[in-house]
Each structure stands twice: as structure tokens, then as C-alpha cells.
Design brief:
alpha/beta; FAD/NAD(P)-binding domain; D-Amino Acid Oxidase, Chain A, domain 2; 3 domains; eight-stranded mixed β-sheet; seven-stranded mixed β-sheet; 12 helices; 18 strands
Length: 388
């Protein structure tokens, strides 16, 4: 077997990278270790409208619900309502979504092998275990889109991501106050270093959290989240699905080497403020596919990928990581004060006007130019002290 480009991983980043490699004239193979595209699901399935556009998906056949806002709960129970001007995101069926992306890849000329696990590589030879049979594939370029525990990353000697969050989520019957609002829960008892969530759809909700590594298991915090007064009043008991996973944060210093590039979760191209990876991953995957095809023809090197993706989203990811680090270290009292500040009418209006799930730096800069300078400086002083 011989291909110009071999893409490892059949998630959104892998699908987009393979499609763009094929569109740019490269013979392309995508391999996926699982027997079914889109399974198992390790995601809240909440995707922004901008991410849908970036993935070049039309129609809402896989959309289960539309989200127009969010309720954010401080540790003391204070509720902050965040309104969007329009639909901010969709709750999607990830299996159908991933399969739609793979269908686009196939339509672009990509070959697919499922039940095929990457086992290693040496120069231009990729070793796989496909349906129990060991095979070697000659590859001009290899794109690692195989997630936070990327085997391509380890095999190539590239550095891994700087931080990982552990998470757990269930699906359960749920009666939200507003079915078009996501619910966000903060505090050391619920999700230290990050947040918990309830994402409603069709009388159900995906209830879960991600947190920084610690002594207590993530299951402990899930039970605490289910005991939260807001969740308790809406959770109808029983669980239909249970998912455990991780979120990589902080892109490594190097994501390309020789004939290998990493993309998506494997490259830490994940929003540190929300843990979402589809939007950033899609942007970078398009670049990866194009550059891989050009590199095989001798028209580029992998350094072009490194430069282009960092130019496109590197600054946003860096600012997001700074925000994540600072907010993640706040104690409950500081979180209460911070959310109380955001609850002012003029600040809520600014969030509605400038809030962008994919580009939090836009709102961040707007808040820095706010009129209440003394309070703003005091509050952000609390936040930024945690950086040092």
C-alpha cells in the first residue's frame, strides 16, 4: 500500500485534514482504529455556529437542540444569565456529525480503513494492525489526528501537550429552566480548575465536568455536581450513557517534524477556556492537509504548517491559556466576586454584544476597556496574581 498522505484518526480533525490533502492532489488514506466512525463519543456535543461553518457542513440533520445563551452559577449559587444575540451553538449527535465529515472526505477521493490501529512508523513506512493483520503502508507524509494520547506523537518523538484535564459525563432525563440555555457550574466542590455543565436536549441533558488532576477521582466530583441544588431540582434520575475522557490544553513547542505533522487534540489545538476542539482543529486541519500535499510534491516543508497554524490561531490559544490558568486558580470567594462583577447590567450587555465562544479575547479586550476602572483593576488584579 502506498499513499502520498496517511492520516491517523477519523475524528473531525482527521476528516478535514484528509479532505484537504485529497483536494490538493495527494493520494490519501485515513485510518481509524475503531469499528465505527464517531464511536465511542467523548464529547459534550456542543458546537458553535462558527465551527459548523469551518467544518463546511450544511443543514442541521444532526442537530438535537439550539443554544441561545447560558446560565453560569457561582459557588455561592448566584446566577449569571448570558444571552446571545442569536443561536450561539448547537447540541449535535456526534456520531452523525463525524460520519458526515468522513463522507465528505470519501467524496473528495480519500480511502478509509476502519478497525486499523497505528502501531509505529520508521521514515516513510507506517505500521498498522488492520482487522488483526499486520500491514505496512508507504506514506510520503503522516498527519497525526489521533487525539490526546497520540501514538503518532509518541512514535515521531514530538513533544506532547502541556496539560490535561480529566472529565466525566452522563446523559440523563433533565427538565431545564430554559431548554435553549447551557448551564455552567463553578467552584472547588464541583470542578476545581475548570467547570461543570448541563447541556439540555429533547428532555435529556449531558451532565458532566472537567477538572485539573488531583487526589480525588473525577467520579467524586460528578456526584457532587449531581447534588448541586440547581441540578438536583432538574435531574430526573437514571443514566443512559456514561463517558470518561480527557481534554488536552496548551499546545506543544513543536507540532511538525520530518514528514509528520500533528493536528487537533494531538497538537493541543483546543480552546483552554471551554475545552472545545472542533473549531480550532478544523482551521488547523485544513492547513495540515494542504501543506502535507504540497510537501510531498516538494513545494513546501512542514515548517509552513507550523508557521501558518500558529499565525491563524496561536494568539487566541495563548490568551485562552492565560485566562484558563488565572481563573482556574481562583478560590470560591474570588469566583463569587468575579461572577458578581460580570452580573452588572452593562457588563452583561457587553457579553451579549461581544461574547464569542471561539474568540474569548474579543470580550476580554472589551472588558479591559470598561468604564469602571477601579473595580476592573481590582478584580483582574486578583485574577492575574494567580499567574505568577
Amino acid at each position: 500500500m502506498k499513499y502520498d498522505v496517511v492520516v491517523v484518526g477519523g475524528g473531525p480533525a482527521g476528516a478535514m485534514a484528509s479532505k484537504y490533502a485529497a483536494r490538493n492532489g495527494a493520494s490519501t488514506l485515513l485510518i481509524e482504529e475503531h469499528a465505527s466512525i464517531g464511536s465511542p463519543v467523548q464529547c459534550t456535543g456542543l458546537i458553535s455556529t462558527a465551527a459548523l461553518r469551518e467544518c463546511e457542513i450544511e443543514g442541521e440533520s444532526f442537530a438535537l437542540n439550539k443554544m441561545k445563551g447560558a446560565y453560569v452559577y457561582a459557588p455561592d449559587g448566584t446566577e449569571l444569565e448570558v444571552k446571545g444575540k442569536d443561536v450561539m451553538a448547537y447540541v449535535i449527535d456526534r456520531k452523525m456529525f463525524d460520519r458526515s465529515l468522513i463522507e465528505q472526505s470519501i467524496d473528495s477521493g480519500v480511502d478509509i480503513l476502519i478497525k486499523t490501529r497505528f502501531t509505529g512508523m520508521e521514515k516513510n513506512r507506517v505500521s498498522v494492525l488492520s482487522n488483526g493483520e499486520r500491514k505496512e503502508i508507504h506514506a510520503g507524509m503522516v498527519i497525526g489526528a489521533d487525539g490526546l494520547q497520540s501514538a503518532v506523537c509518541r512514535s515521531s518523538g514530538l513533544p506532547g501537550c502541556k496539560k490535561f484535564l480529566s472529565g466525566m459525563q452522563i446523559e440523563a432525563p433533565y427538565a431545564p429552566e430554559n431548554p435553549e440555555y447551557v448551564e455552567i457550574f463553578t467552584g472547588q466542590d464541583v470542578a476545581p480548575g475548570f467547570f461543570g455543565w448541563a447541556v439540555p436536549f429533547n428532555g435529556m441533558a449531558r451532565i458532566g465536568l472537567a477538572r485539573t488532576p488531583g487526589d480525588k477521582p473525577v467520579s467524586h466530583y460528578l456526584e457532587k455536581l449531581l447534588e448541586h441544588p440547581v441540578v438536583t431540582s432538574r435531574y430526573r434520575g437514571s443514566r443512559t450513557e456514561h463517558v470518561v475522557g480527557g481534554i488536552p490544553l496548551g499546545y506543544p513547542d513543536k507540532t511538525a517534524k520530518d514528514n509528520v505533522v500533528l493536528v487537533g487534540d494531538a497538537a493541543g489545538q483546543v480552546k483552554p477556556t471551554s475545552g472545545g476542539g472542533i473549531y480550532m482543529g478544523a482551521i488547523c486541519a485544513k492547513i495540515a492537509g494542504e501543506v502535507a500535499a504540497k510537501t510531498v510534491r516538494g513545494e513546501a516543508t512542514v515548517d509552513e504548517y507550523e508557521k501558518r497554524w500558529r499565525s491563524a490561531v496561536g494568539r487566541e490559544l495563548s490568551i485562552g491559556m492565560m485566562i484558563h490558568k488565572s481563573l482556574g486558580k481562583l478560590g470560591d470567594n474570588d469566583l463569587n466576586e468575579f461572577i458578581s462583577y460580570l452580573n452588572q447590567p452593562e457588563i452583561r450587555n457587553a457579553i451579549t454584544e461581544y461574547g464569542d465562544i471561539d474568540h474569548p479575547s474579543v470580550l476580554f479586550r472589551k472588558l479591559l476597556s470598561g468604564s469602571d476602572k477601579k473595580q476592573l483593576i481590582r478584580l483582574f488584579g486578583v485574577v492575574f496574581r494567580t499567574l505568577f
